[in-house]
TrEMBL record:
Entry annotated with the keyword Transmembrane: yes
Keyword Nucleus: no
Alphabetized GO MF terms: transmembrane transporter activity
Short name of one Pfam family: DctM
Name recorded for this polypeptide: TRAP C4-dicarboxylate transport system permease DctM subunit domain-containing protein
Major location (coarse): membrane
Membrane topology reported for the UniProt record: Multi-pass membrane protein
Domain TRAP C4-dicarboxylate transport system permease DctM subunit: 1-111
GO CC annotation terms, alphabetical: plasma membrane
Keyword entries, A-Z: Cell inner membrane, Cell membrane, Membrane, Transmembrane, Transmembrane helix
TM segment ranges: 27-52
Subcellular location: Cell inner membrane
Amino acid sequence: AGAVGALGALLCTAIYRKLNWANLKEAVYRTISLSAMVMWIVVGATAFSCIFTAAGGAELIKDIFLGLEVSPIVVVIFMQFTFLVLGCFMDPTGIILLTTPIYVPVIRALDF
């Protein structure tokens, strides 16, 4: 889908006669810059997840959530709220990589 969109944008710029080497160079530069930013987020989230899991952080979070005497639905609502807050600042890929090792043990322990 992304390739089709890029091809459509390229065709539109050619039709409207805005396609030149300077515009193409800037578009490529901005694309590479954005891709590099997203990759750094992915690298950082992956490193954090590995270190957090190896240090036993996932088990600690699981024990904290299970120690609370609240309904499992309240725990899930809290998780959704953290996704909402993280979604304001991070890329979805980074959020998934960051929260999966934290929340999967909790969800499994709650029998969802």
